[in-house]
Design a protein that fits this description.
single chain, alpha+beta, Alpha-Beta Plaits, Molybdopterin biosynthesis moea protein, domain 2, 2 domains, 6-stranded antiparallel β-sheet, two-stranded antiparallel sheet, nucleus, Ribosomal_uL10-like_insert, RNA binding, Ribosomal_uL10-like_sf, Mrt4
């Protein structure tokens, strides 16, 4: 394992005490994980690209990727832990990993090789409810007479009307009075559309992860674009 370049305390922007402590703890945890204990020479550092990040699937992913440690926090803090420039990087070429941390990205420190990690990531995908801004994966058009709304209790009818759907309550059942376009394939969802999809129980978001880049023993490799 290359010799660590750690030589001074991490300096963070002045923030509230608890937030600062969390940032310092994150930096220390990342650095401690990368600086392999004596007798363990193999260490891989991965940049994991997250698509449709959700807290619950991310928690499960941490378990799947054990014995590795998955870190997800402020990008600038994770970059700080690695060293964003050659002169302050923790180990040779780790600044290149830091440069890859942008958007929805996480860090994984593991002794498992890329093929093993890739297989774990490919085997774990979770369907979830889409958020506003996500792109609709299909067009959903509700028409009068279909049974989509009949499964919902009558006391939910005001909620559907509040969301802009032309509904009424008849004989205790919710009926649609006219065509209602929930969403259109390929177009970003509005906040209202995302709420309607969630109420209808339609999941359009897919939580999945891929390896964007990895580092091992001073060697950096970019996988994603």
């Amino acid at each position: 394992m290359p010799k660590s370049k750690r030589s001074k305390e991490v300096k963070l922007t002045a923030v509230k005490k608890n937030a600062k402590e969390r940032k310092v703890n994150l930096v220390d945890s990342i650095r401690t994980s990368i600086e392999a204990p004596e007798g363990i020479e193999e260490r891989f550092v991965y940049v994991i690209a997250l698509n449709n990040q959700r807290n619950s699937p991310l928690k499960e992913l941490r378990t799947i990727l054990k014995p590795g440690r998955l870190f997800y926090g402020k990008n600038k803090v994770m970059q700080l832990a690695l060293g964003a420039k050659p002169e302050n990087e923790l180990l040779d070429n780790l600044h290149k990993i830091a440069e890859c941390i942008s958007g929805e990205r996480a860090l994984l420190v593991s002794n498992e090789a890329p093929d093993v990690v890739r297989n774990k990531l490919e085997s774990y995908k979770v369907n979830d409810f889409a958020k506003a801004g996500n792109v609709a994966t299909e067009t959903i058009l509700l028409k009068p007479g279909d049974s989509t709304l009949e499964v919902f209790p009558g006391n939910m009818e005001p909620q559907f009307r509040h969301l802009g759907m032309p509904t009424t309550l008849k004989m205790g059942k919710i009926e649609l009075l006219g065509d209602y376009l929930v969403c259109e394939e390929g177009k970003p969802l509005t906040p209202t559309q995302a709420k309607v999809l969630k109420v209808l129980g339609i999941r359009m978001a897919l939580f999945e992860c891929t390896i964007h880049a990895h580092w091992n023993n001073g060697t950096f490799r970019l996988i994603g674009t």
